[in-house]
């Protein structure tokens, strides 16, 4: 029997990649995408994906959610919709509380009303995508975050995601809603908004703009290629146990400075291999024989900047036989090549904050 999915935030970065992945791997399923199309969500991200329905709407609109669940007989919600940028949460935390906390509550309430209170009889699943940032910061030698690590969020963003995680858990234990949660590490890949570290630094490099590095650049993140993340979520939907949480990591702890150096090396090599790039991007340092690393600029660290994240992904490997397929350098090259080949996409995306970074 085909499933009928409601994918919230499906026009955003990870959501759009998941819609693409699910359509390719589950061609028989029905997909309904709900997205508010704020600055990070764009119809263009999913315009070429066949046989999907799209609704422009807000997850805080409970009546709309109930109507969609009823009308399309939805039996699976995959909840990506969220405000996700730490810097934005520091400057304006209110929208993070509205979307991440109240929006998740709205979805849970609608799912409970349709699936449980009115008793559709449909087997159901509510899958909630969260972040490793809810666990706080790690010291250099501390063990990686596991599913039993105590929550210790350090930014308004991570605090709002922690609150939504707790709501999802509560709706399972209190009402019996069939839920799962995944906490992922730093995602990267195609269609990521240019305010995030990798696309921001690549775009700045091609434009000859400074590459702003917070603090000493040695903040460490576990990097996860978005395609691997999508595969991990699919494995949870197919085989994960209701009420359980699964950490999804890339298995690659890399300091920000090393990521930036790898981007610089990619740009330099790309210009060496393709002399036409100098005409397309004349402001890039290698267009005039200089090194992209000349653009590196150290700036004041942001408030509450977590020093290190690392994911212990043994549970999903052991119980669901999932492991990421891409290593960091392979996936970074694929990602940078995608942006290099799609300048029309990031040229029409909202102008990013020139000092904003994900990590």
Cα radius of gyration in angstroms: 20 Å
Query: Percent range for helical residues?
Result: 40-55%
Determine the oligomeric state from the structure. single chain
State the major sheet.
7 strands, parallel
Reported CATH architecture of the domain at 4-193 and 224-252 and 306-325: 3-Layer(aba) Sandwich
Number of extended strands: 12
Strand order of the largest sheet: 3-2-1-4-5-6-10
Whole-number mean pLDDT: 91
* Structure class: alpha/beta
The CATH fourth-level homologous superfamily of the domain at 4-193 and 224-252 and 306-325: NAD(P)-binding Rossmann-like Domain
* Straight-line N-to-C gap: 41 Å
The number of helical segments is 12
Query: In percent terms, what proportion of residues is strand?
Result: 15-25%
- Return the CATH topology of the domain at 4-193 and 224-252 and 306-325: Rossmann fold
Order of helices and strands: EHEEHEHHEHEEHEEHEEHHEHHH
CATH class of the domain at 4-193 and 224-252 and 306-325: Alpha Beta
Overall, the morphology is globular
List the uncertain runs: 350-358
Protein architecture, described:
Helix content is 41%, strand content 16%. With 359 residues, the protein is an alpha/beta fold. It has a domain at 4-193 and 224-252 and 306-325: NAD(P)-binding Rossmann-like Domain (Rossmann fold), CATH 3.40.50.720. A 7-stranded parallel sheet has the order 3-2-1-4-5-6-10, sandwiched between helices. The protein has a 3-stranded mixed sheet with strand order 7-9-11. Strands 8-12 form a two-stranded parallel sheet. The N and C termini lie far apart (41 Å). 48% of the residues are buried.
